[in-house]
Please model this.
Amino acid sequence: MKMAFRWFGKGFDKIPLEYIRQIPGVTGVVATLMDIPVGEVWPKERVKALKEEVEKYGLSLEVIESVNVHESIKLGEKDRDRYIENYIITMKNLSEIGVKVICYNFMPVFDWLRTELERVLEDGSKTMAYKHDVVLKIQPKNFAERFTEHSEEVELPGWEPERLKEISETLEKYKNINEEQYWSNMKYFLDVIIPYAEKYDIKMAIHPDDPPWPIFGLPRVITNRNNIRKFLELNNSPYNGITLCTGSLGANRENDIPSIIREFVKEGRVHFAHVRNLKFESDKDFYESAHLSRCGSFDMFEIMKAFYESGFTGYIRPDHGRMIWGETGRPGYGLYDRALGAVYLQGLWEALEKTWRKKDI
Model:
């Protein structure tokens, strides 16, 4: 298991690499280029400079999150091949600096969705929360405007300004797309890019839909065990895999996260993992808690045990954290709580390693 930490890049992230390097056990960052418009090529000189910046601080750059997929590809529009070609060039450029995994998603229009970005908890910490009734009552365009207003003047991943400007037009296009067409468009994308993933030795790791149910009538497909199986069977290459996000999949209480982990890790199809905890307030209402099991609704020991027992050797990062100790910044992506999460997850892993070692004696 390799512990990494998400970093949005110099000028886009308040957290310096110098601080990330000081988190015990964190050996690399999961980075991105926030200013490259969706669908455009990530230039060689930019990705090379990114790698050099990261390595100056003794950290590795082997996972990229996210090379976003253009809506034309998701919609199956006539110009999709141009954007797929750009995607492949970006893959090649990233492979040349040693990137081994690309985390991406196929969520339509919106990326992850929350109704509150600064819910104040009893202990005074702030966190993100989701209330399903709020989503049912609000218009998508109004929701996007509200989301942007409360984002602490930072750009949120999946909520880039250029995507939100065209939200009404894009939503209108999706009215002509049913779920099966969406699956077909996904397969088209995979069948073109996966041979290049094999050629460049980059594992493609799709992120589950967050939350894992339909939003605003849009198709949401990477939502449960059966749909993950269907996705992997669209292209059987081992380079076609998933990012197993415990928070995204776990938002649906019917998803047995340890079981899903065991099934797909053993098959070698989990290339990356986001590990976090949630606290349910009802079946579809939750807030993002501290990583510690008793702070939320997940058994984090059983989750890490499933990864360990299945032989997971890939990349893990602590996912969304609370804002604690007066920190301000990008919601979900502060330094302190995620650092605590990284150390906690490694503590569970160490306990598992030592316990199993004794069993082998």
